[in-house]
Give the backbone structure.
Amino acid sequence: MTTTTITTTTRPARDSGTFHIGGDLPVVRLGYGAMRITGPGIWGEPLDRDEAIRVLRRAVELGVTLIDTADSYGPYVSEEFRTAQRSAPIATVQNRYNLGDRASEPVLEFCQAEGLGFIPWFPIATGELARPRGPLESMARQVRATPGQLALAWLLRRSRVILPIPGTSSVAHQEENVAAAGVHLTDAQFEALSALPSARG
Ligand SMILES: NC(=O)c1ccc[n+]([C@@H]2O[C@H](COP(=O)([O-])OP(=O)(O)OC[C@H]3O[C@@H](n4cnc5c(N)ncnc54)[C@H](OP(=O)(O)O)[C@@H]3O)[C@@H](O)[C@H]2O)c1
């Protein structure tokens, strides 16, 4: 576990650095995905409305400036995010991507080459990469981080255009996730994580 003391004045999310969306809108790279503050099954009001509000407030206090939200999380849409560029300026692309699912690697490479923000949804594989006794536990112990922090630190290290938006309904997880901005991987640790099998991609 990292032992970083989290205060509202240190704003630890800022340790992840800044990305300029569209070239002129600066955001702190480690963001927050707000889908998890809805009700069960991502439907309706949250079970604990006060905690949901605290989660959002805490994100901002911790320095998060990129909060992802949408009025629906429907089925996949066409993400042929080069053709679209001909008809409208594209600032960011949002695709499913995490250590265990790298099927969108070519899209990420494209974003990196074009300087577009790449927002990976399911950044911790809906919690699978954060779970105890999961695939990241032993390396997390070496790095003195939690498995979820390791998954987020890998994303931040993978490309400077990646803007992770881990989702949570709990303040404790919000604090843990934001502290990932201060987890720095050595080259060897990054390579070892990159070599883990990816189910897709
Ligand atoms: N564009 C799209 O099509 C699309 C689709 C899906 C999602 N999204 C966006 O992407 C965001 C992220 O996706 P997501 O929230 O589905 O998946 P995620 O960030 O990969 O994982 C969230 C899940 O992991 C758990 N979790 C979070 N932090 C944890 C920690 N430190 N330790 C253990 N468990 C932890 C959460 O449970 P707790 O609540 O208990 O923390 C939640 O169940 C969404 O919130 C949404 O804004 C976009």
